[in-house]
Design goal:
Residues 240-274 form the FPG-type domain. This is Formamidopyrimidine-DNA glycosylase. InterPro entries: FPG_cat, FPG_Glyclase, FPG_N, H2TH_FPG, Ribosomal_uS13-like_H2TH, Znf_DNA_glyclase/AP_lyase, Znf_FPG/IleRS. The protein is an alpha+beta fold and 276 residues long. It folds into two domains: 4-133, Alpha-Beta Barrel (N-terminal domain of MutM-like DNA repair proteins), CATH 3.20.190; 145-268, Helicase, Ruva Protein, domain 3 (Orthogonal Bundle). Helix content is 25%, strand content 22%. The protein contains six helices and eleven strands. It has helices at 4-18, 40-47, 145-154, 159-164, 174-184, 197-216; strands at 23-28, 34-36, 54-58, 61-65, 69-74, 80-85, 94-100, 104-109, 116-121, 257-261, 264-268. The strands form three sheets. A five-stranded mixed beta sheet has the order 2-9-5-4-3. Helix 1 packs parallel to helix 6 (197-216), helix 3 (145-154) crosses helix 6 and helix 5 (174-184) crosses helix 6 (197-216).
């Protein structure tokens, strides 16, 4: 699943490719992707003749700011966007096509069909799903760490599960939670309420560092992720624990271990990350 760094990279590449273009037509080949409005023809009408002004992101969610409306797109597991000339062949699993006034297309491709799209009037997107259910992410200018620290220290859940909870802090998935906890020297099964304020601060600082580094590297390509120009991410070359089970820790040379935390594969160093 694309996490914050991948969605940020997609946002940056898409903004370069489509900013200022006007949508002239919209084709929807898999209606279930459209969650709001309920009527597909209304979805198409709302987007026609709208000019893309800028791209934004909240956590793992992509936002297209248009003239009068906002398109909110959650890529879920395998969603991806690409810009094509109108006469280029349409690849399998292309479910939504936005035609532009310059005879190019923005095409949404999703093998798993788990992605969602919502269109709202400008200014109402924050109070509607999915944004209304998302906390701020740690790379947002408006991010406030104190409420996150409080939520973590009040929770009896494992810190891994807390960091995956998008209502606490959005943007992190399995890859970056494992990397964050390794950098902060915190065991993934440690309960939030057992962490000191300094340890929680270390976790948040590690999350910011990890996410910023991953954005710089264009994200992480484990299976199929590519940005909107078809380029792979490179952060997988810097992974310290995720997917490294059995390999020596870069700090202490102990073997990286893999366990299940709430059903999620979780990687950590048993020496550097001691459970409290």
């Amino acid at each position: 699943m694309p996490e914050l760094p991948e969605v940020e990279t997609i946002k940056q590449t898409l903004q370069h490719l489509i900013q200022g273009k006007t949508i002239t037509n919209v084709h929807v080949h898999w209606p279930k992707i459209v969650q709001h409005p309920d009527d597909i023809s209304e979805f198409q009408t709302l987007l026609k003749h709208q000019t893309i002004q800028q791209m934004r992101r909240r956590g793992k969610v992509l936002l297209f700011d248009l003239t009068d409306v906002v398109l909110v797109s959650h890529l879920r597991m395998e969603g991806k966007y690409g810009v094509f000339e109108r006469d280029e062949p349409i690849t399998p699993h292309t479910h939504v096509i936005f035609e532009f006034d310059d005879h190019t297309d923005l095409r949404y491709n999703d093998v798993r069909k788990f992605g969602t799209m919502h269109v709202y009037a400008k200014g109402t997107e924050e109070v509607n799903k999915p944004l209304s259910q998302l906390a701020k992410d740690p790379l947002e200018a408006a991010f406030e760490p104190d409420p996150v620290v409080e939520k973590i220290q009040k929770s009896k859940r494992a810190i891994k599960n807390i960091l995956l909870d998008q209502t606490v802090m959005s943007g992190l998935g399995n890859i970056y939670v494992d990397e964050t906890l390794f950098l902060a020297h915190v065991h993934p099964l440690t309960k939030g309420c057992d962490l000191s304020t300094k340890q929680v601060d270390d976790v948040l600082k590690a999350a910011i560092t990890t996410l910023q580094d991953a954005v710089t590297q264009g994200g992480t390509t484990i299976r199929s992720y590519v940005n909107s120009q078809g380029q792979m991410g490179m952060f997988q070359q810097q992974l310290q624990v995720y997917g490294q089970d059995g390999k020596p820790c870069s700090n202490c040379r102990s073997a990286i271990e893999k366990i299940k935390v709430n059903g999620r594969g979780t990687h950590y160093c048993p020496t550097c990350q001691i459970q409290i």
